[in-house]
Amino acid sequence: MDLGMDLATGVEVVIRAVLVIVAFLVLALVAGQTEHKTMAHMQGRLGPMYAGGYHGWAQLVADAVKFMQKEDTVPAAADRTVFKLAPAVAIIPYMIVVTAIPLSPTWVAADLDSGLLFVLAVSAIGVVGTLMAGWASANKYALMGAVRGAAQLLSYELPMVLAASSVAMAAGTLSLVDIVGEWQPWWLIAQAPAAVVFFIAAMAEIQRTPFDMPIADTELVVGPYTEYGGMRFALFLFTEYAGIVVISAMTTVLFLGGWRGPGPEALAPLWSMLKIGALCFFVIWARTSWPRLREDQLQRLAWGALVPVSLVQVAITTTLVMVA
Questions:
Q1: How many CB atoms lie within 10 A of CB 145?
Q2: Of 45, 92, 233, 321, whose CB has the highest number of CB atoms within 10 Å?
Q3: Taking the model in full, what pTM does it have?
Q4: Burial 158-177 (b: 16+ CB within 10 A, else e)
């Protein structure tokens, strides 16, 4: 009996792991394809609209073939082990985070009691891959980009955690499933400042425009990824798209009610995906609409605006919780 239960548990774990990996790959690829199409329309770039025929459906396939054909070189002065390991260190944390993000009360690989802390802690590890890439490349531009990335993480991690803690205090739990369960429509107004702070800080952490100072192609070539080519460079791009999906999903769970919406419970995953898709589109839209910040502007925004707003939000939420 025990052997049968252990076998069933093992099979369930394997199935959940496979589903998480498939969902992670599919969602990140869809985000990449959407970015190609959105930027093509917004910037009048005709190239991505013709690959493969109807509406350029094969653009993503063409990109994959291109990256596989590129020469995968390692600089002579580079630390070969760290250089090769960096892309995996950058992408694996996002894959782990996906296991704790619920799309519905039942569509979640691991409902953790401290899911919010788990997601925030694991997602912050991704910058280690950037640091490894910059340091191991033996390239001054790559190293400067990696240092910028570390400084950006330190600056924007604090307001993001404070904004998330505001919601956790209001819900009285750190479980992401329970946070959605406790969510109230009036939080859209009461937690709006925290939502704005969280989303901006999350965009800065994944180094998306207008917060792409670590990459800054006009100054640092491609920053930490300057010496990378072929599939290793593609993995870093894939990590960026995965980050877009993760921050959109976390914003949905914490501030937009997750799967909650009109209609039967069977539509819960659909509501989650619609909200996540809308936020992903906004992230892509920001890339085509706003210019890159200077380094001093980036730091001033974090310490001069986001941190004070998040502290005030935490104080207000604490007061409301105590009164209630």
A1: 30
A2: 233
A3: 0.87
A4: bbbbbbbbbbbebbebbbbb
Tokens of 136: 């191991």
Say which DSSP state 103 is in. Answer: S
Structure tokens at 176: 């992401």
Residuewise pLDDT in 10s, the chain (324 residues): 465 556 666 677 777 778 778 878 888 888 888 888 888 777 777 777 777 667 777 777 777 777 777 777 777 777 788 888 888 888 888 888 888 888 888 888 878 888 899 999 888 887 888 888 888 888 888 888 888 888 888 888 889 999 999 999 998 889 999 999 888 888 889 899 999 999 999 998 888 878 887 777 666 777 788 888 778 888 888 888 888 999 999 999 999 988 888 878 888 889 999 999 999 999 988 888 888 888 788 888 888 899 999 999 999 999 888 887
Q: Is the peptide bond before 210 cis (omega within 30 degrees of 0)?
A: yes
Give the start-to-end residue ranges of the domains of the chain: 73-323
